[in-house]
Amino acid sequence: MTPRKTAAANTSATKLFVLDTNVLMHDPTSLFRFEEHDVYLPMFVLEELDNGKKGMSEVARNARQASRFLDSIISEGTHDIEAGVPLQAQGSKSASGRLFLQTQFITNELPPNLPVGKADNAILGVVMFLQKQQPGRAVILVSKDINMRIKARALGLSAEDYFNDKVLEDTDLLYTGVQALPDDFWDKHGKDMKSGTQDGHTFYNIEGPLCRDLLVNQFVFQEHEGANPFYAVVTTQEGNSATLRTLTDYTHQKNAIWGITARNREQNFVLNLLMNPEIDFITLLGQAGTGKTLLTLAAGLMQVLEQKIYSEIIMTRVTVPVGEDIGFLPGTEEEKMTPWMGALDDNLDVLNQSADEGGEWGRAATRDLIRSRIKVKSLNFMRGRTFINKYLIIDEAQNLTPKQMKTLITRAGPGTKVVCMGNIAQIDTPYLTEGSSGLTYVVDRFKGWEHSGHITLQRGERSRLADHAGEVL
Q1: Prediction pTM value
Q2: DSSP string for 87-107
Q3: CATH number for domain 16-160, candidates 3.60.15.10, 3.90.1150.10, 3.40.50.1010, 2.40.50.140
């Protein structure tokens, strides 16, 4: 069915967005995300939704949810479908557009060398037909498929990515968790800001316009050549005032965590977050070799085996292969996940090197003890679980969608700490970008909460070869 040619339809006030199937499979609520503009669904999109609804994958669940939304929209009321069904999201008071469905055959307008039976080409044919039918109106194809958008533009059609799922347009603006203090900070505020000490930490009360830009659990620093650096964390912030607390120095061997000390400023900040029992949720961003997994495991082992704050470590990651998939893996859940957990074994080897007292037998016994307190779980079986008093590590979190991230984090029960880590520059999941990754999503949404913290690690500590490769390759 095509929109009626009315005076309102041929004006440029509202646009007509033709949705590709992958948009609905990525975000079923996309139907309601176009404000006052209209949405058009070609028949091939409905066919592909029907074909993709079977299974337990995230894509299949989204396909089923999109079909439910469409059924609810079409079945409610006695709207004239030919004139468009109003799209009003639940709880929204803003102006809504209309939904149009294709129910009639549309003459193919594409070049003859493009196969007619292919879904992408059929959708492009619909867009071209609508553009010719309504020349005074912007008709735009919305697709997550880059090649689909390229083909559309090559045919002279307007095409866009789906932007409503993006947290940030520019990931350079993403919260880093760290703020450098200006050079004249102490001149303006003076050392009389001290408000006392507690458990070896000094507190400072500061006031001024700088405080408006600070967030709770954000780290601040000032470094001058020849002078002792100042490192602190924001404990409270309100208007033009804030309270800073000095940190535990984890670069010193006396404060080593499971034999590991911080090698740079950001690693020191990370260990201060990981070892703080008041922090329930931590996100760590950084390229390969910055120490995300090593520091997280060291802090987890210390708090599970020595301090006994948590009962065990649970580690999971998204099973998206970098190369070709090696097919079905046999065994139990933990055995199936073993090939994906090479990073866990590599880091345990490093952490186990410090146990020299007992020789080879002692190291083997320590390793068995450690592995007995670390459980490897698959994301596929997380739905419905509740983790109580656990130390939950989510590795490679950049490959999670915001919806999957919500599913995982809401598994946390009383006394559980969740650590999400990843590198948003290495996303392997189709249709996810740096701006729409679930890791970017939670970093932005959790910033400033008193029980969460975030650090973006800048400096690699793996080797000079790895550091140079990260810069030049």
Answers
A1: 0.76
A2: ---TT--S---EEEE--S---
A3: 3.40.50.1010
